[in-house]
Structure formats: structure tokens, C-alpha cells
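tool=predict chain=A
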Amino acid sequence: MGFTLSGVEALAPDQPSLKAASGLAKPGKWLSLTHDGDLWWGECQGSGANPYRAVVDSGVVGYKCTCPSRKFPCKHALALMWLAAANPQAFSAGQVPAWVTDWLGRRRTSTPTATPAERPARDIGVAMAATPDEPAPEDPAALAKRQQAALKRAESTSAMIRDGLDDLDTWIHDQLTGGLTAFVDRAPDRCRKIAARLSDHKATALASRLDELPSRLLTLPAEDRPDVAVRELGKLVLLAAAWRANPADPQTARDVGASEKRDDVLANPEAPRVTGRWEVLGEQIRNRRDGLVSHSAWFLRLDADDTAPRFALLLDFYPASSGRPESSFTTGTQYEATMVYYPSHAPLRALALDMREAADRRPWPAATGDDPLADVCKTLEVVPWQQDTPLLLPPGRVVTAGDATWWRADSGAGLPIAADSLRQALPQILGMPLPASIGIWDGARLTLLAGETPFGRGYFA
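tool=predict ok
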């Protein structure tokens, strides 16, 4: 038994869901589309690092999706059925993955799923959903009123953020006056209080950054913490000054207030788009003090063009209570994809579109120059408050000195490695020649993500 468009109509909870599904019922919207018998599954990229996974069963109609929608079936499941009905050749034959098998095992077979024929007839149609909406003419007076209200909200938010930044300036002055040692000792309590005030003033991104500062300090040796603290406070002063100079700048607005929505980034003509070959370097998952989990997926562009960004960061946040999701990207996998970057003076965070796993493999590009921090300097010239910068490192090796671990270039330059980096990989690569390495520099320590070794490419995150 297969899907039909009339069956998709019957299963749709409402016309808006069917309309949303029509926009996703295109192979280019999916990272993968696979089937095996009556099972059809795929991955659809959302706004974060993890794509949504959807599976439908055309034998005994059933469906499952990892998205948080409260509609059943959701737009992703509906789109998957739509594609199976109208474009089955878009699916490749494949082996059923573990997550689909797990879903099959947990289905309640004692209660059969309703088939489309059992659903009551409703005024819902695929043809209507697939037809582009014609924008209705808007009343000029209503439009002007809405624009005026939006302007007032923006002005109110800007005024609140400005007041919050004034509080931050006073707070930083007080910390420096009281001494850095006292600040480091009491950083959790002090940062929590100013973060709460900034959050009340709509400076939510800045509040999160301050709330996480004590955790960053605690990962460092005690003797390094005052140095890192004063550098971070200095970066916050620069960020506040940049926002005051141009509150409308996308970079400063994002780093102080709230990030743009996915659809706004995709619709922005100024958002850089880079199409090419990308390799997954690794993922970083961190628990935050606000109850969220930060999930970072790092990508390296393998094409020779040096005018486009070399790295891309897919960043996602989800509640810690929901548990750690399965990793969507396998380190070392190469994709043909388009990265759409959030507008920035130094583009890094991006959204991935049209991802297709590559059939062949390409080598890493070579690092330029012997100075491992040359790219950091270029970034800090335009975004002096940046925290994490990805680096393509020249030939070197990992060495130890006392209790510390270092990456040392063949030219002699060295960078200290973060204490929680490398984990089990250290004994295997210690002292081994690394013709190329890739890491994240946070201003004080290097976190190695991957490296070329005499035995092949290794991934450490």
C-alpha cells in the first residue's frame, strides 16, 4: 500500500499544516530521503545543528517526527508522505537505520492507526496548499499603524538595552576597582546578578555571555584567571561601545540582544551564501546555566577559494530536560552544501541548505603562514569582542611540559591546549607529527578538533 495525495489530504490536521508541508515537499529541502518497503524516512534541516528526523509507514499508516510541533501529523511527516506519493523516485533505497527500528519497536500495534479512508471529509486540499498565496492588498492606514507600532517597540527595546549597558559599564568599573582577584573569587554570584539585570533590559545575548563567564574561568589554571577575566571585561566594554555606535548593525544587535530568526536570515539579501564542499570537524555540547544546552557543529570548507569564509558553525540550543539528541553529523563526513551566514563582519555562524553527502573525499587546504594566531588577529580587527575563533594550523605536534599540554608548531610557536581537550586521544598523538591540525582558540586555550597524522585523519572532539 502506498501514499496518495488524497490520503495526505485526509491525514492533514488542517489546511495551514498542509500549506506548510507543500513548501517542504521538495527534495532540495531534505538532507536525505530513503525508503525500504513500506518505510519512508528522511532528515529535514531546521534552524539548528540537528535536522528533524521524520519517518512514515505506508503499510499501516503511521508517522513520527523529532520536531516539537503539537500537530499530528506535523508538516515534516506530511511533506514526507507528499513526496512519497508524488515523487517516489526522489527516495533512494537503503537499510533501515537504528532510530527508525527503535520507532517501529515502540509503536503500539494493539491500537491500529487510522487510515485515510476512516477520516471524516474536510475542506482540505493539496491543490489549494500547492498554489502560491496571492498577497491580499493591505489597507494603507493599517500598514502605517503596524509600522509605527513596530518602530515604537524597537525604540523602547533600544532604550532598555542602552540603560542596561550603562549598568554594565558601572558594574565593570566596580569589579576593576575592587580588584581582579576578588572578582574571580566571587564571579558566579557577581556575574549572575548583572546577567539578570541585563536580561531585564532585553540584552539577552550579553546576559548569557556574562552568566557563562564563571564557567569559562573555572576551566583555567588559577594563575591564568585574572588575565582572562580582564580581557573578557575589556571585550564587553568594546561590544557595548560598538552597539552604542550602531545599534542597527546585525553583528552587534545579535551579540547584545537577540539573534535573528532562521527565515529572516534566509530572506536577507546581505546574508553571504557559500556553496562548496564541507567537512564535519566535530561537535561541542555544553550545558548552560540558564537550563539550555548549546550544541555547536563545526565545518571546514575544502574548496580552494580564499575569498569566502573557511569555516562554518551550526549552532543550536535546546532545553537540558529534553536530553541529549543523537548527533546528526558524523565527523569526517564531507557534504556538498550551501552555507548561509548570519550577517557579520567576520562570518562564522551559518545555516546549512541543500546538504548532500559527497561520493568522494577531498584533502584539507594548506595553512597559510607560520603564525597560528594570524587569523585570530584578522578577526579581532573587525570583531574585537569575539570569543571563539576556528584555526587551520600549520605543521606541528602535541607536547607536554609539566602538567600542561601544548600544540607546538614546527616553526617554534606554541599554544596551550584546554584541559578538557583531546581526552582519550592524547596518548595516541603525543609527540606525533601533525602535518595539519584544526582547533578552536578561545583567547586563552586551544581546543583541538581534528588533525592529520601519519596514520590518517583523526578527530578529537
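Confidence is low (pLDDT under 50) at residues 108-121. The first helix runs from residue 5 to 11.
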